[in-house]
Amino acid sequence: MSWLEVAASTPFGVSELPYGVFSRHGDAPRVGAAVGDQVIDVAAIWRATGRDPKIFEQPSLNRFLAQGRRTWAEIRTALQTGLDDSAGRALIEP
Fold first, then answer.
1. Is the pLDDT of residue 4 over 80?
2. Which phi and psi angles does 4 have, rounded to 5°?
3. Residue 80: helix, strand or coil by DSSP?
4. What's the CA gap between 16 and 18, in Å, rounded?
5. Which of 12, 29, 62, 71 could form a disulfide with 34 if both were Cys (CB 3.0 to 4.6 A apart)?
6. What's the longest Cα–Cα distance across the chain?
7. Mean pLDDT of the chain
8. What is the 3-state secondary structure (H, E, C) of 25-77?
9. Tell me, what's the pLDDT at 7?
10. Are 93 and 36 in contact (CB under 8 A)?
């Protein structure tokens, strides 16, 4: 069970996590994952875990998608683990 409360009526729960591009407050567009009515900044998560966020600091999904299934699975697993584990809250919530 996730520490993040997601309304049952939302199409984007912890198991879906669709990717898209977003920006906020005039920042450059980058890759995010939707959960509930929020967006997880994937570049920020990758940076905080010591990984290179360049593939997510893009105004499109192209560079991320070019990485292939293994990378897609690694990222999805990291996000889902962070949402399921209360220790991940400090990393994802900001």
1. no
2. -90, 120
3. helix
4. 6
5. 12
6. 35
7. 86
8. CCCCCEEEEEECCEEEEHHHHHHHCCCCCHHHCCCCCHHHHCCCHHHHHHHHH
9. 67
10. no
